[in-house]
Amino acid sequence: MSIVKAEGIVIRTMNVRESSKLVTLFTREHGLLKLDAKAARTSKSRLRGNLELFSVVHLVYYEKENRELQFMSQAERLEGFPELQTDLEKLGYASACCELIRRTQAGVEAKPQLYPVLLETLRAMNAAQEPRLLFWGFQMKLLGMLGLAPNLQYCLNCKTPSTASGEHGDAAVWHFHVTRGGFICPNCAGHTGALPLSGESLRVLSNFQTWPPAKLTRFKISPAATAEMAAFFRAYLSHHLEEAGALSSLKFVKEIKQDLQTRQKS
To answer: What predicted TM-score, i.e. pTM, was given to this entire model?
Structure first.
């Protein structure tokens, strides 16, 4: 048995037995960890208060070979995000980011470069007014690290670069082929089975691939482009990332928005 120290983000917790917690963390060096925090809910436990959802913690755990569930010894909270706990929409989108991590990183080799992306996304989301943009940006970066990034550089048919979207104007209709993983420019229009994308949407999607999370909060996007990008991510993830499935966290966000709309009408 060895003692392991690591920094991780708490992405899921579950109460087990009378006073313990089952904690799932995402770490830079070890990827996804599922640890048994014995007696973490007792008043005298040193773990109590350090394992809140989305917390960044320094942890110590005992690792035994061929044992799926390891035991946590210590946890010290380094950073927390209170807005992600109290703002229901932010809670939903932050949970969706963590849900994607759980579904795509279980049983695979650790991806150290993914850890700071999740951490920076949660930090930006904690302070942001529009958490959905940050969730979309996180999805785009995750797809890239999984080798599933869409081609947003040039037209699949004529190789016209996506930078030409500015020449056609934001109102010009481009099309994105989900199965082929790339777009068709306005000059090659007329293809069926493709999602319409305005020049505005294409430009924003391209920036999602390269801009850091904090910078994404500067976007001001039209309602039409927002609807197009929502359709893009639904279609692209369901086709290329089957393990993502229907994210329960997004269902939660949808219910929140529907309830808010109902309240505003009454």
So the answer is: 0.89
